[in-house]
Amino acid sequence: MYHFESVLRRIEVGKTLYVLLFYSNLHDSIYTFSLKHPHTGSRSDYNSDIFTKNRNHSKKLYSPTLNMSWGDRVHLFLRKDEWFEDASIFSLLESIPASSVKKIPLQHHLKVQSAIKAANPFS
Question: Where are the domains of the chain?
Answer without folding.
Answer: 1-36+86-123, 40-72
